[in-house]
Amino acid sequence: MPEHSQSGALAHHFETYDQQREASSLGMWLFLVTEIMFFGGFFLAYIVYRSSFPEDFAIASHQLDVTLGAINTAVLIASSLTMAMAVRASQLAQRKAVVGFLIATMIFGGVFLGIKAVEYSAKFEHHLVPGPNFELHAEGANGEHAEGFDVGHAEMFFNFYFGMTGLHAAHMVIGIGLLIWLCFPAWKGRFNADYHNPVEVVGLYWHFVDIIWIFLFPLLYLIGFHVGH
After folding, report:
1. Going by C-beta distance under 8 Å and a sequence separation of 6 or more, which residues neighbour residue 195?
2. Quick one: average pLDDT of 12-41?
3. Which of 3, 66, 24 is nearest to 216 (CA)?
4. For position 185, which CATH number holds?
5. What percent of the chain has pLDDT over 70?
6. pTM of the predicted model, to two decimals?
7. Of 14, 55, 60, 171, which cross-links 154 as Cys (Cβ 3.0–4.6 Å)?
8. Would you say 61 and 224 are in contact if contact means Cβ atoms under 8 Å apart?
9. Residues 180/228, Cβ–Cβ less than 8 Å
10. In a domain, 124, yes or no
11. Count of the separate structural domains present in the chain
């Protein structure tokens, strides 16, 4: 027999809320698998090129602001915590807490995007955007041009940088849009122990986006950091 609840959120083609929640979670996990393959192509290409031109990629990576990257890492870790708290609050039918944690997660996401905008602005200012105006001079210990440095390889690094971080930022924007959408039913008290799968699946998406950054930060900012500036 189908379950019934005051929320009226059980779709007609499901018999129980557990069945509906499992189907929703499975759908999100399948979507995330496709996302892993999508980002995986970027990661694989980056690793191949970085392995081929380690010195040039290391010199180019020194143009990134490690401090801002570390701050953004901490911000996203905090956002994962507030997102998890939002899921828990939705299970307990704590209407105001759900909305509060969703808003806190959005704020952290906005801070991340703001810091990323500052980083992008600096790259435009210093002509580090791939294209006809790209410019990077690497100097050796004696102040002369670094021997063997290939500016084309450095430009390739920034192709990866803008491609990977830009794609990640786009996912962040989508995530914030989903959080805004969740705030409306959350404020109306739609979520409870039976029906909270929308918050749960959006939480999975948000955690996935955070994990992608956990990989991007060391790959782009930290690998090769030991090489002299």
Report:
1. 5, 7, 9, 10, 17, 20
2. 78
3. 66
4. 1.20.120.80
5. 83
6. 0.86
7. 60
8. yes
9. no
10. yes
11. 1
How much is the average pLDDT of 101-120? 97
State mean pLDDT over 153-166. Answer: 94
Structural domain for 212, as ranges: 17-135+147-222
Residue 57 domain flag = yes
CA dist list (Å): 2 to 27, 118, 204, 205: 21, 52, 27, 29
Residue 116 lies in a domain: yes
Whole-number Å distance between alpha carbons of 201 and 29: 9
Which stretch of DSSP H or E encloses residue 165? helix 151-187
Judge whether 98 and 191 are in contact, CB under 8 Å.
Answer: yes
Q: Residue 125 is which amino acid?
A: E
Pick from 208, 203, 5, 201: nearest CA to 93: 5
CA dihedral 131, 132, 138, 139 (to 10 degrees): -160
- Non-local CB neighbours of 96 within 8 Å, separated by 6+ positions: none
Q: Tell me how crowded residue 137 is: count the other CB atoms within 10 A of its CB.
A: 10
Query: CA 105 to CA 182: how far, in whole Å?
Result: 12
Residue (of 166, 173, 161, 228) closest to 205 by Cα position: 173
